[in-house]
Each structure stands twice: as C-alpha cells, then as structure tokens.
Design a protein that fits this description.
Keywords: Acyltransferase, Repeat, Transferase. This protein is mostly beta strands. Helix content is about 10%, strand content about 40%. The longest helix has 20 residues, at about 1-20.
Length: about 180
C-alpha cells in the first residue's frame, strides 16, 4: 500500500512538471493527480503544496484566470468553470468531493431563452476555509477567511468570516470557534 501511495505522489508531481512546461505556474511540492483536467491560459497558478486530485476539471477560457493558494486542495470530482472570469482560492483551503463552482452560468433573469442568458462574475474564496462535499458555488460568490460550508449547500453572495454556513441558499448556522480561544 505504501508503495502505491508513493507511486501516485510521484505521478502527481510529474504531471505538475508537465503542466509547468505548458505555462501553468506550479508551486513547490504542488501535485496534480492523473485524471485531473486543467484547461488554462497565462496567469493561472497552483500554490506551494497544493493538490488537485483525480477527476477534477478546471476550465478557464481566454482571459480566464485561477489561483489556488498554498496548502489547499480540491478533492475528486470537482467541476470548476472559470470561463473568462477570475477565481481566487486562498491558502489552507480544503474543498470536499463533488464541488460545483461556476464563475459563469445560465441566468433565469430577464426575457428570452435561458440558454442565451448568462451570469458572469469572479469568485473569491478566502484562506482557512473548509467546503464540504457536493457544495455548489455560483457566480459572484465571496467566501471570506475562516469559514466552513456544510455539505450540499448552495453558495451565493458573501459569506462572512467566522461562521459555519449550510442550506439552500447557504445561511449562517452558528459561529465558529477559533483555535486557542
């Protein structure tokens, strides 16, 4: 088992080195596991010791940029649509499996066909954030530092620092206790 883990880690580091050659800024010790799919342009970056696990898709089109901070990870099965917008994920962020994150999405506001209406906005996730399994983050969302988001929540708008959020749409459930407090 230990040998298998070491081989997986080696493959992830080799994959990160290949992505570096393709123009992705990859920090020291960052890992991109086999099966992860990153479509990126200039200005996209993975921080030191960040990890993108298998079956993660991050799609940025021309002009779109994403940054994943140091010591952060995206668990398997995450789908991240940056498009031509910007996504910033801070340091020490743990994102659970099945995340759906959209910097652009169809919009139901206005008249006409839904497939022709879009909401496009940057998304920002602060540092020291935990996002549970199968959370959906919609365009324009801001998750401040020191926030936890419960599984299956739908994030819209701004989530203020120091709270556990949950529900559809996500709302504050209880304050978080700070370590050492």
């Amino acid at each position: 088992m230990l040998l298998g883990y070491r081989l997986d880690a080696l493959r992830a580091r080799l994959r990160a080195a290949c992505l570096r050659l393709l123009g992705l800024a990859v920090g020291t010790g960052a890992q991109v596991h086999p099966g992860a799919r990153l479509r990126h342009g200039p200005g996209c970056a993975l921080g030191d010791r960040s990890i993108v696990y298998r079956d993660v898709q991050i799609l940025a089109t021309a002009g779109g940029r994403f940054r994943i901070g140091r010591d952060s990870h995206l668990a398997p099965l995450a789908y991240v649509l940056v498009g031509a917008q910007q996504l910033h994920i801070g340091d020490d962020v743990a994102i659970g499996p099945g995340l759906m994150l959209f910097c652009e999405s169809n919009d139901v506001q206005g008249e006409g066909l839904f497939r022709q209406q879009y909401r496009r906005a940057d998304v920002r996730i602060g540092s020291n954030v935990f996002i549970g399994a199968r959370v959906t983050v919609l365009p324009g969302a801001v998750i401040e530092d020191h926030v936890a988001v419960a599984a299956h929540a739908v994030v819209t708008g701004r989530l203020a620092s120091g709270w556990l959020y949950g529900g559809v749409p996500a709302r504050p459930l209880r304050p978080l206790e700070r370590a050492g407090a």
